[in-house]
Amino acid sequence: MTSGRRSVGRGRRPRGLLAAAALGATALIAHPAAAHTAQTTRTVPAAKGTTYYVDSRSGDDGAPGTSAARAWRSLDRVGRTTFRAGDRILLKAGGSWKGRLWPKGSGARNRPIVIGSCRCP
């Protein structure tokens, strides 16, 4: 019997939010306090990819998603996009989504695909 913890093999790192998404997470909430903590304690290398915004309240899945003013609304829209190395997916802090966060694509060694939150207007 195990205690419910999953082990990570040597040389492998847990994928955090992506791992939770792969396990079928059914609800996601971007909390403003968590966004502030993540921004101050985590350093991510500068990326030259595209930044995509997701806003559960005023977003529109028909929008390009490349600015806070033209953000996507749903996690389903994120899942229909193939992201490239250096891209960022920013969920608006305070938003709430139902469904699965399952982005497609692949990062590179010094250009990961970053999932985070923002305090967008």
TrEMBL record:
Annotated Gene3D superfamilies: Single-stranded right-handed beta-helix, Pectin lyase-like
Signal peptide: 1-35
SUPFAM superfamilies membership: Pectin lyase-like (SSF51126)
UniProt-listed InterPro entries: Pectin_lyas_fold (IPR012334), Pectin_lyase_fold/virulence (IPR011050)
Keywords for this protein: Signal
Protein name as catalogued: Uncharacterized protein
Native organism: Streptomyces rugosispiralis
